[in-house]
Structures are given as structure tokens and as C-alpha cells.
Write a sequence for this structure.
């Protein structure tokens, strides 16, 4: 019989096996309390029934594991912990399953907690680590598996696998309770863990995201959000006059009808040339002398939506907020003072006074100033570790509560999350930055030690755009970050990175994208269909790159996904998912050219095919079971249409 089978041994250990060759054996739940792991052993008793086990540690706790086979591909595991002791149990983690793991797969799809997490398709390592979900596939796309938690607003979670010689050997899936106490006689049921096995990684992920979206009420915009962002040209140096100059240029551009919003990024609050960021107060600074309502009204007069950037959970020591309300910030549990992380303090989102302050901030932004779109950034400051006003909430719960405050004020106005915990944002954010910052450089990324792919370059953003595509139009609209096509660095960009690159190059750093890199990034943004934000000064753009930029419009509104063919993580094959004419995207994020040969049936093509490239009109034709594509240059992309 195909599908899942369950076997529960007399010692309570569980085996789950699927007909695709995946097998999880020796599975047990566990609970970590105040640093001590409690896993069923000889001191525990077991009550075994069809599809589940109750594990009892007398006088301390019970753990109940229930397994439900949903269909041939999917099963679900529910886990409940009950406190049978006379004292509170401060729960660190609830491990839903831990045991041996085998599957005939080659690649692991990892997903970090936020935009800078390790989100990529990678080889099986000694340890692979993921949040919310973890996926597996073979290179041919014929065997796949997905494990994922369904309720992402109550607590964060982690999924970890071990590997030996490139083969999976063990897995642990846990819910992080962060020491929140379970009181005597109380019980807690954590998020269900769903496990899917079959052929298609893309198909399994679509079913997983649908289950999460249904339970959490995902918001999917009706149309692609488009516009212009000030950051990647000005890097916070822009003033009111420069914003309006760019808005006028964009309103007169050939593609003006395609653009919706002008987003003023970080820099608008600077109180003086001597004092830069003072996050926390959120009032107009010296570069916007007429105030933000004046600018919002001026943008509306050009037929554009006004958009504004904020970091609402972040507080700088230069701000009035810090001076007046240090007790509203996350506190150091030892020093009894606000704790700093990444150069900022984090607001205590469990404090009702903090939530009221956040509400007042967005009433001002939306209702008094008239902004219709917000990009809210550095939201990870809301979940930084430390002591909070209400210790009974996990950071995920506190974060979602604060986000709901913002949504309640916003109504149907557009919210883009950035630098954000992802799971608890489902159902609140309209769009999500799913990867790293771009710049006018393909690589030379920043901080490769701290982030797997580095930051502030096109390739790291492209990796996330591809390997988090499964979230798009399922949990929100994906934001791949801004489109850059210029051949040079802007004055603001060069000034910001001057110190970072000092002494690292012979001559000047290699700013600017070559033809392949600019074309690849534009094709990828168009093909994947997410949010489209330009960040170029049109008057400063080379004529040939201005012409390239225009080819972005009209936008692609056809659904797309992976072709379930995975030759290597740097070489990606995608396709349209509707039944109309076939559209194929191939992208090479690696540093050497590649020759791609792809099974025709993976692309939805028959034994005879004729393809035309979207931008350069190159044509290829052939017959047979394999499609041989022209050599794809390093950092290059192509989009092929059938017919």
C-alpha cells in the first residue's frame, strides 16, 4: 500500500515510513524544563493506542502524542504537555519528535527565522537547521519531503537534521517556549507538525503553505505592489526636494501608469546634520522642513501613493523615547537596565503602554499625515531576548499582538514587513522582504561570516528570491528587494560603503552591474512576480539601462514555480504553473557558465518544442525527451516562451 504507515513499539518509540523511501524511526517527544531535558525512558509509563501514545512521568508531567494520517502524502502530529506536579514548569522547549531519519534525497531546503536567515537549497551537512519548515528533494525532483509547523503565531520553532557522508541520519523538531511557565494542572497543546512525502517539493510546499495560510488568515494583495524606494540611490541622504524631483520624473516616465507608491526610506527623521538616526520618536527631521503631511499631499497630487519607512520596535539612545521611557524597553535580566542588540534597544511589546505608543505612532502616520503604505523594518528588535513586562507571553505572541495593533490602525492600507520574524507575520503583513539587501553589485557581499550568503549585493537577494518563492501569493506578496540595473555606484552608495571596502581592492570597488547581471536580476524579479520597487534616479541612469528598465513592464501576473528539477543550488529552473503557453525561467547564480539539459516533461513541453527568449528574441527548437538550452553565462538569466 502506498503512502504512510505508523508503527509504535512497546517502549513507546514511533516509526513513520512512506512509500517514497522516507523513514523516521525511534521517534520520541521530550520537554526541556529550566535547562533539563525530560525524555521518556524507564522511569516513564506508556499508554499506547492506535495512532498515539501517552507518556507519563509520575508526579511531574504527561506527554501525549497523536498521529493522524490525513492522506497518502500527509500526516499530522499533535503534542500536548500537562503539568501534573505541584509547581510551575518553566518550559524551554517542547520537542515533538526526535529520532533517526533516512530519505533518498540530495538537497535540503532551509528557512531562517527572518530575511537574513539561512534561506537556501543546500547540500546535506553535518547539521542543517531551519525554522517553520524544512524540505528535502533529490536532484531529479522525483522524491521529496516537507516537515512544517502549522501554527506560527504562538511560538517560534526549530527543525534540525544531522547528516553523515551526505546522507540524512537524524532529525529533531521542537517548539520554543522560552521559559514560559506551565502552571500546575494546566496543559499546553503546541502547533501541529505536518509531514508530507511524495515526488514534488514544490507541490508539497504549496500544500503546506496553504494549510498555514488557512489557519492564520493570510493576506494576499489583489495586484502586484509597485513603486520607487529612495534608499538604494540616496542611502538616507535624500531630502524633501529630492523625493519630489524623483516622483515627478517617475510620473512622467513611459511606465508611469505601472507605478503606485513613492516610498521614503530611512533618513526622514534625522533631527540635524550632526545627529543621524534617532529611531524611536518618528517625527519629521530637518530634511523635511514642511513636515510629512505636506510631502504626502504633494505625492498624491502627482497621482502617486505616499509611502513611509519606519522601524517601530527599535529605539536609539539618542531618541527622546529612550530618555523618557527606558522602562518600556526589553530589560537585561541581570543588570536591570535596557539591553542593546545590533546597536538598538528593543521595545517591550508585552507592555500595554508600549502598545499604546505604537498605536499613536501609526495613527499619526496613516490618519494625520495621510500615508497609504508603510515599510516597517528591523522588526527583529521586537523579539530580542531579555526580561519583559509580561513573562507569560512568548516573543512570537508579543510580536503578533504588536503587529495586530499596527494592522488595526492601518485597516486595508499596505504593510510591508522587513527585517521581520516571518511566522507570526502571516495574516497581518501584505508583503514580506524575504531576503538580503541589494546594491549595485552582484557580489562582494558584506558580513559573509555572520550571514551565509552575505548582504548588500544582488546575488544574496537573488538566492532568497528563488528559494523562498514558495511563500509568494501564499502567505503574502514576496518582496525580493529593489530592482537595480545601473552600471555605477550612486554617490550615496559609495559614501556608505567607503569604509567597508577601504583597502580591499586595487583601485575603486567594482560598483555597477554588467549586462548579464542587470538582465538576470530584472528577469528574476519579473518572472517570480513579487513586489516591484525601483531604486534608481532616472535622470542618472544610462540610456541602455533605462531601456532595459522599461522592459519590466507590463508585469508578469502568471503564477510560476520551480520545475522540480534541481541540478545544483546555484542553477535554477522555473516554469509557469497555468495551462496557457509554457514559460520557462533559467537562472545561473554561479560564477561559471552552465549548459542546461532539462527533461521536457518537467517544463510542460511535448516531444517537439520551439522557444523564444523574452528580452533578446533568441530562438531555439528541437525534439525529444530532453530540452538542451544554450549556454547560460555566469550571473545570467533567460526567460523562454513556447510557440
Amino acid at each position: 500500500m502506498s503512502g504512510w504507515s505508523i508503527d509504535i513499539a512497546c517502549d513507546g518509540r514511533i516509526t513513520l515510513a512512506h512509500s517514497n523511501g522516507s523513514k523516521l524511526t525511534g521517534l520520541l517527544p521530550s520537554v526541556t524544563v529550566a535547562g533539563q531535558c525530560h525524555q521518556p525512558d524507564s522511569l516513564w509509563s506508556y499508554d499506547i493506542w492506535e495512532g498515539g501514545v501517552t507518556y507519563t512521568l509520575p508526579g511531574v508531567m504527561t506527554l501525549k502524542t497523536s498521529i493522524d494520517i490525513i492522506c497518502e502524502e500527509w500526516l499530522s502530529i499533535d503534542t500536548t504537555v500537562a503539568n501534573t506536579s505541584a509547581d510551575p514548569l518553566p518550559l524551554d522547549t517542547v520537542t515533538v519528535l526526535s529520532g533517526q531519519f533516512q530519505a533518498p534525497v540530495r538537497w535540503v531546503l532551509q528557512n531562517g527565522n527572518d530575511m537574513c536567515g539561512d534561506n537556501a537549497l543546500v547540500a546535506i551537512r553535518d547539521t542543517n537547521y531551519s525554522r517553520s519548515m524544512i524540505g528535502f528533494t533529490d536532484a531529479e525532483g522525483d522524491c521529496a519531503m516537507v516537515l512544517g509547523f502549522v501554527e506560527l503565531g504562538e511560538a517560534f520553532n526549530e527543525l534540525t537534521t544531522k547528516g553523515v557522508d551526505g546522507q540524512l541520519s537524524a532529525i529533531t523538531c521542537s517548539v520554543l517556549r522560552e521559559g514560559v511557565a506551565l502552571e500546575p494542572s494546566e496543559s499546553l497543546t503546541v502547533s501541529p507538525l505536518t509531514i508530507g512525502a511524495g515526488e514534488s517539493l514544490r507541490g508539497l510546499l504549496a500544500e503546506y503553505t496553504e494549510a498555514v495560510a488557512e489557519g492564520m488568515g493570510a493576506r494576499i494583495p489583489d495586484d502586484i505592489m509597485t513603486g520607487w524606494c529612495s534608499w538604494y540611490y540616496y542611502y538616507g541622504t535624500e531630502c524633501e526636494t529630492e523625493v519630489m524631483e524623483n516622483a515627478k520624473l517617475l510620473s512622467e516616465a513611459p511606465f508611469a501608469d505601472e507605478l503606485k507608491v513613492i516610498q521614503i526610506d530611512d533618513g526622514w527623521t534625522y533631527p540635524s546634520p550632526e545627529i543621524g538616526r534617532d529611531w524611536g520618536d518618528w517625527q519629521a527631521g530637518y530634511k523635511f522642513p514642511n513636515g510629512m503631511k505636506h510631502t504626502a499631499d504633494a505625492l498624491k497630487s502627482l497621482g502617486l501613493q505616499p509611502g513611509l519607512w519606519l522601524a517601530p520596535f527599535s529605539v536609539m539612545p539618542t531618541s527622546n523615547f529612550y530618555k523618557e521611557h527606558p522602562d518600556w524597553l526589553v530589560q537585561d535580566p541581570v543588570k536591570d537596565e535596557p539591553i542593546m542588540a545590533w546597536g538598538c534597544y528593543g521595545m517591550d511589546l508585552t507592555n500595554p503602554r508600549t502598545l499604546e505608543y505604537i498605536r499613536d505612532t501609526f495613527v499619526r502616520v496613516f490618519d494625520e499625515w495621510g500615508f497609504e503604505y508603510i515599510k516597517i523594518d528591523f522588526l527583529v528588535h521586537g523579539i530580542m531576548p531579555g526580561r519583559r513586562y509580561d513573562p507569560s507571553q512568548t516573543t512570537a505572541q508579543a510580536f503578533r499582538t504588536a503587529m495586530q495593533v499596527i494592522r488595526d490602525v492601518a485597516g486595508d492600507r499596505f504593510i510591508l514587513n522587513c527585517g521581520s520574524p516571518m511566522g507570526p507575520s502571516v495574516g497581518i503583513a501584505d508583503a514580506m522582504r524575504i531576503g538580503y539587501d541589494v546594491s549595485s553589485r552582484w557580489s562582494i557581499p558584506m558580513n559573509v561570516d555572520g550571514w551565509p550568503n552575505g548582504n548588500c549585493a544582488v546575488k544574496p537577494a537573488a538566492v532568497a528570491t528563488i528559494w523562498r518563492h514558495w511563500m509568494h501569493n501564499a502567505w503574502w506578496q514576496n518582496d525580493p528587494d529593489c530592482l537595480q540595473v545601473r552600471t555605477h555606484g550612486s554617490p550615496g552608495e559609495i559614501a556608505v560603503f567607503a569604509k567597508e571596502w577601504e583597502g580591499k581592492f586595487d583601485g575603486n570597488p567594482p560598483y555597477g552591474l554588467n549586462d548579464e547581471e542587470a538582465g538576470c536580476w530584472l528577469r528574476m524579479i519579473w518572472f517570480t512576480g513579487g513586489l516591484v520597487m525601483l531604486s534608481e534616479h532616472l535622470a542618472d541612469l544610462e540610456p541602455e539601462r533605462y531601456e532595459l528598465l522599461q522592459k519590466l513592464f507590463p508585469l508578469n501576473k502568471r503564477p510560476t514555480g520551480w520545475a522540480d528539477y534541481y541540478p545544483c543550488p546555484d542553477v535554477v529552473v522555473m516554469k509557469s504553473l497555468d495551462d496557457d503557453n509554457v514559460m520557462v525561467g533559467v537562472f545561473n547564480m554561479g560564477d561559471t557558465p552552465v549548459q542546461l539539459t532539462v527533461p521536457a516533461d518537467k517544463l510542460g513541453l511535448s516531444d517537439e518544442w520551439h522557444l523564444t527568449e523574452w528580452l533578446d528574441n533568441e530562438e531555439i527548437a528541437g525534439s525529444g525527451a530532453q530540452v538542451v538550452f544554450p549556454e547560460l553565462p555566469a550571473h545570467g538569466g533567460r526567460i523562454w516562451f513556447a510557440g
